[in-house]
Amino acid sequence: MNNGDGKDSEGAAERDHQDQRDEPKDDSDRYRAPALDKGLDILELLSDQRGGLTRAEITKLLGRNASEIYRMLERLVARQYVVRSEGGDRYSLSLKLFALAHRHPPMERLIAYAQPLMHRFANTAEQSCHLAVYDRGNLLVIAQVDGPGTWGIAVRLGSRVGLVDTGSGRTMLAFQAPEQRAHMLAEHTKVKGEVAINHDALEDACERIRAAGFLRKESQQIFGVTDVTFPLLGPSGQAIAALTCPFLKRIDEYVAPSLDDATNLLRETAEALSMFREADGANAVAAT
């Protein structure tokens, strides 16, 4: 009914016209979810920004209005998919997508791909090695290969190792954007026997690791062990895993590969795995 003034008919006609304008032009648009699209647009945009972006930059790059970006960012921060810088003016991806992917087959593919390369390293360098990823404030060992000799250091598969006092942890921290590193440290909880380090000293250590591209130092957990760690880098240049060799030096008459030999072999292995992550990143872990 139009109650004699025709307004209802005009409104219906306008709604019909709007429906025609919004009707999907192809099957890809048939089931659009605009709010979800906005959230995914933000996540995809931030995945390419190592240093994060301000809200104004996100709004401009996505061509959307400030209010809808503000609301969406607040929800992404609340759900811990995005972290806000200490100053509150920049946003970057958290590792939540990465953590979720631990339960997803792409992580299994990484392990399956890594193990043959890790075995090759262990047999050639005659040392053990292990692969660790960030998980809820510390690192989780997801793959471990023993060396071929009588003696070796093995980190048990599934172990949680410290974020701030191990080669794996510091290397993982070193190759993160500042906002992401702050988020990881905020989640950090001490593990048994953890060696404390103040914030400035940790930042200095991270800067040295970034400059060198890897870490090589005496273990803070066991005498006689030199930790050698390289990052596995994703497409954005951030570490998504850390590959570590706890190097043991032979002191008898057997001539084993040297520390430098092992370092070079581990570098080649990490680079091969980083290349795998770049190629497979679209189907594997975001993040980051």
Automatic annotation (TrEMBL):
Keyword terms of this UniProt record: DNA-binding, Transcription, Transcription regulation
Annotated Gene3D superfamilies: 3.30.450.40, Winged helix-like DNA-binding domain superfamily/Winged helix DNA-binding domain
All copies of domain IclR-ED, residue ranges: 96-279
Keyword Membrane (UniProt): no
Pfam families: HTH_IclR, IclR_C
InterPro entries: GAF-like_dom_sf, HTH_MetabolicPath_Reg, Tscrpt_reg_IclR_C, Tscrpt_reg_IclR_N, WH-like_DNA-bd_sf, WH_DNA-bd_sf
Annotated stretches, region: Disordered: 1-33
Presence of the UniProt keyword Lipoprotein in the record: no
Basic and acidic residues composition-biased segments: 1-32
HTH iclR-type domain ranges (all copies): 33-95
The name this protein goes by in its record: IclR family transcriptional regulator
Source organism of the structure: Paraburkholderia kururiensis
